[in-house]
């Protein structure tokens, strides 16, 4: 059970700890600077300041608590014959960090869609060129909040670190089973509503807002897609639309239960063209039966005039599945200690929240 | 010899002193490269992965906005000043 939350916001990184009497902010870092991703692993914390003028940056706090700037993930020189590539070969944003399943290994998902790997806990990074140089990568396209494709999710199979699945917004679900030597697009069954009818089932134009994987049952994956919720029970090869999702199927965030492949949480929004909670009521939806039915959880959440949107990395679940937390674009932060049945608001007005993690 | 001056806003993140870059620095690119030789951490704040000026960094050579923001070929005279600012933006 985790007693520490790390919250990356538009104006700094905040640490929120469970104390006698409830959760409270205990530390802040990089005040004033946008932080786009955070991860704590092996006692060290990585944070990605996304400086508006001076570009994305990477800092790491060592086990003694000292922050140092690290070398950034960097794209190689763009070759002369890459003129037909619609996307820049320049790091736009570090969007997420994911532990790589072996000691020292990390992945960074970025805009404009590069996947980077580190084998020394973030000191040095290399572009996973097999994915970046895949000819179909040029067909990926930009996402809300940026004109560039974004690698929104990285799932590392707990049974086999050579099996990595990534979600691209927008570019479909891609997987490697040979530690990144080869990649293929795998999301059969996904469809969308934003492409011409004859292309709605094509794999690449699927906007993968976020993927989640049940660590104890890794073949179970959930996808909050731009057009619906989908679920796979065969490691992402085939997907079925979860039509029972309510109050809507639109949203950004999803988290899978750590041990129960039937349980997942979402934070729905009204719909694509009105990105606000339905009827101004902020709710979390939870399924406990593999997506057949959903509970709409509202106890402790604002139920009138709430216009909070929750971004894809801003919902977190701890290792027990009992504690959850999420932060919103309006700077709200709510924590549950009973698997989402009830929520307590953090007594703070945070900057807009980009990412929330249990440390 | 040409001198490169950096906005003091950079000092929030790292040292960014003014640097005399020597008479061989005949272009903006050569002048910046001379700075980054002694201050390598500054490079990623000013240039992107392809060596172009970052979109929201403003550079003036002898009082005029740099024209070639990708290859940095703007000529620099022997005693000219280069100023690196952050572009105006909201937020």
Overview of the molecule:
The complex is a heterodimer of chains A (359) and B (91). Chain A is an all-beta fold and 359 residues long. Chain A has one domain (86-350): YVTN repeat-like/Quinoprotein amine dehydrogenase (Methylamine Dehydrogenase, Chain H), CATH 2.130.10. Chain A has one helix and 29 strands. Chain A has one helix at residues 129-132; strands at residues 4-9, 12-19, 22-29, 35-41, 44-51, 55-56, 59-61, 67-69, 93-99, 106-111, 115-118, 126-127, 150-156, 164-169, 172-176, 184-185, 208-214, 217-225, 229-232, 240-241, 250-256, 264-269, 284-287, 295-297, 315-317, 324-327, 333-336, 344-345, 353-358. In chain A, a hairpin with a 5-residue loop joins strand 7 (59-61) and strand 8 (67-69). Chain A is globular. The mean pLDDT of chain A is 95. Chain B has one domain (3-86): Beta-grasp domain (Ubiquitin-like (UB roll)), CATH 3.10.20. In chain B, strands 2-1-5-3-4 form a five-stranded mixed β-sheet, covered by helices on one side. The longest helix of chain B has 11 residues, at 28-38. The model of chain B has no long low-confidence stretch (mean pLDDT 93). Classes of the chains: A mainly beta (359), B alpha+beta (91). At the A-B interface, loops of A face helix 2 of B.
Which class of secondary structure composition applies to the elements of chain A? Answer: mainly beta
Shape of chain B: globular
Q: How much helicity do the residues of chain B have?
A: 10-25%
User: How much strand content do the residues of chain A show?
Assistant: 35-45%
Summed over residues and divided by their number, the pLDDT of chain B gives a mean of: 93
What is the fold-level CATH name, i.e. the topology of chain A?
A: Methylamine Dehydrogenase, Chain H
> What does the average pLDDT of chain A come to?
95
Secondary structure layout plus pairing:
The complex is a heterodimer of chains A (359) and B (91).
Chain A: E1 4-9, E2 12-19, E3 22-29, E4 35-41, E5 44-51, E6 55-56, E7 59-61, E8 67-69, E9 93-99, E10 106-111, E11 115-118, E12 126-127, H1 129-132, E13 150-156, E14 164-169, E15 172-176, E16 184-185, E17 208-214, E18 217-225, E19 229-232, E20 240-241, E21 250-256, E22 264-269, E23 284-287, E24 295-297, E25 315-317, E26 324-327, E27 333-336, E28 344-345, E29 353-358
Antiparallel strand pairs in A: 1-2, 1-29, 2-3, 4-5, 5-6, 5-7, 7-8, 9-10, 10-11, 11-12, 13-14, 14-15, 15-16, 17-18, 18-19, 19-20, 21-22, 22-23, 23-24, 25-26, 26-27, 27-28
Chain B: E1 3-6, E2 19-20, H1 28-38, H2 43-46, E3 57-61, E4 64-65, E5 81-86
Parallel strand pairs in B: 1-5
Antiparallel strand pairs in B: 1-2, 3-4, 3-5
């Amino acid at each position: 059970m985790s007693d520490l939350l790390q919250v990356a916001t538009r104006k700094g990184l905040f640490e929120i700890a469970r104390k006698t009497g409830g959760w409270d902010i205990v530390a802040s870092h990089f005040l004033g600077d946008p932080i786009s991703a955070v991860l704590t692993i092996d006692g060290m914390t990585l944070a990605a300041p996304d400086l508006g003028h001076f570009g994305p940056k990477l800092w790491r706090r060592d086990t003694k608590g000292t922050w140092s700037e690290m070398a950034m993930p960097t794209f190689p020189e763009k070759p002369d014959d890459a003129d037909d590539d619609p996307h820049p070969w320049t790091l736009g944003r570090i969007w997420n960090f994911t532990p790589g399943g072996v000691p020292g290994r990390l992945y960074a998902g970025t805009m404009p869609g590069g996947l980077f790997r580190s084998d020394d806990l973030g000191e040095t990074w290399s572009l996973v060129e097999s994915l970046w140089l895949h000819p179909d990568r040029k067909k990926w396209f930009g996402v809300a909040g940026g004109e560039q494709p974004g690698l929104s999710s990285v799932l590392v199979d707990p049974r086999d670190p050579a099996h990595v699945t990534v979600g691209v917004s927008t570019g479909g679900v891609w997987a490697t089973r040979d530690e990144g030597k080869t990649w293929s697009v795998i999301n059969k069954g996904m469809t969308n509503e934003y492409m011409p009818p004859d292309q709605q089932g094509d794999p690449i134009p699927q906007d993968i807002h976020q993927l989640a994987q049940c660590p104890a049952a890794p073949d179970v994956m959930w996808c909050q897609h731009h057009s619906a919720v989908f679920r796979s029970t065969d490691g992402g090869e085939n997907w079925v639309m979860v039509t029972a999702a309510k109050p809507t199927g639109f949203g950004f965030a999803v988290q899978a239960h750590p041990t129960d492949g039937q349980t997942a949480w979402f934070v729905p929004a009204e719909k694509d063209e009105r990105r606000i909670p339905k009827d101004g009521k902020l709710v979390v939806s939870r399924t406990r039966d593999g997506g057949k039915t959903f509970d709409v959880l509202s106890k402790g959440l604002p139920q009138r005039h709430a216009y909070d949107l929750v971004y894809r990395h801003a919902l977190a679940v701890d290792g027990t599945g009992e504690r959850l937390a999420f932060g919103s674009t309006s700077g709200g932060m709510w924590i549950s200690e009973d698997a989402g049945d009830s929520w307590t608001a953090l007594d703070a007005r945070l900057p807009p929240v980009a990412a929330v993690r249990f440390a | 010899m040409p001198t490169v001056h950096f906005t003091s806003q950079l000092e929030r993140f790292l040292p960014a002193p003014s640097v005399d870059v020597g008479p061989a620095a005949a272009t903006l690119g050569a002048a910046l490269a001379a700075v980054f030789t002694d201050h390598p951490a500054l490079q990623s704040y000013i240039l992107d992965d392809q060596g172009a000026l970052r979109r929201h960094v403003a550079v003036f050579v002898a009082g005029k906005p740099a024209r070639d923001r990708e290859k940095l070929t703007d000529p620099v005279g022997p005693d000219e000043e280069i100023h690196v600012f952050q572009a105006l933006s909201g937020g």
